[in-house]
Amino acid sequence: MGKGGTSSVDSSGVMKKIVLSYMYVGIWIFLSFSVIIFNKYILDRKMYNWPFPISLTMIHMAFSSGLAFLLVRVFKLVEPCAAMTRDLYMGSIVPIGLLFSLSLWFSNSAYIYLSVSFIQMLKALMPVAVYSLGVVFKKELFQSKTMTNMVLISIGVAIAAYGEVRFDLYGVVLQLSAVCVEALRLVLIQILLNSKGISLNPITTLYYVAPACLLFLSVPWYAMEYPRLVASAPFHVDVVTFGLNSMVAFLLNISVFVLVGKTSALTMNVAGVVKDWLLIAFSWSVIMDKVTQINLIGYAVAFIAVCYYNYAKLQAMKSKDQKPPLKVSTDEENLRLLDTHQKKPSETHKSAI
């Protein structure tokens, strides 16, 4: 009866972890989907027609910095990190802010040159980059089966790229650069949150990272977009459009930190393939991006490889949580029995007294 009860508790624990993990993934997919479509709408010359990706990213970071500051310093709903020092900030937060700014800059810029569907196909390479960097930084164990899945994902993306109709080399370079930088950023976030003993919640993470990201973005913005903005017609801020867009981006940033902290960077990026399928279907049916059969075949290969990876990881999780306690060796058991027999006479004598 006891064993059955323990097994039931273990199964319940596994199911709870699975449900929570997929809940985090679902929230992240919804927010990521919304931000991508929203950014595409603003940046695309055929839609809102505001092709200033660095400026848009800076608006997001300024909004996140301001809101995080209000929550931490003014309303004091969240406590700042007591362990944060200048050396820690410069050595950990600043590099993440730099990578974050580059990732957002490159990825947002790619939407001007490539279709939403093709960008999502290229993003399927993210698990390959994250897994490789995870092995290098010893956050992931090297396994031949996992590497086989990563190779299959790469092959599938290559096939999809071969069948792309709207192929722009500059846009592809931008998106692949964003993938590499983002993968490194996600691994460093995992190290920062889990390996250095720093207690940061999503709000305080943005409180420290967003200002650094805003500072780094100001350099290319001043050199590349500021002259164009000055030369163009006077720009009046659309408070509703940019405010709503910034709020969704803020929530997405929080969901990224939560998801990586609760699961792993690799899990987030592998789950992102499901989001990519939804975006491909949306761009094909609503935005009217052309998706060829070769695109779909290639991406299907990558998707199958990711599904197998998820299945293998789920089995490993169940095996780990249901693993029985270590069996006591025969020598240790004999010593314990001998010790018990030696204590019995004295215990009996105490009882008689």
What does this entry show, briefly?
The chain has 353 residues and is mostly helical. The protein has helices at residues 2-43, 53-74, 86-113, 116-123, 126-136, 144-162, 169-194, 202-231, 239-262, 265-287, 293-321, 330-352. Helices cover 81% and strands 0% of the residues.
Question: How would you sum up this structure, described in words?
Answer:
- This protein is mainly alpha-helical.
- The protein has one domain.
- The protein is built from twelve helices and no strands.
- It has helices at 2-43, 53-74, 86-113, 116-123, 126-136, 144-162, 169-194, 202-231, 239-262, 265-287, 293-321, 330-352.
- The longest helix is centred in the first third of the chain and has 42 residues, at 2-43.
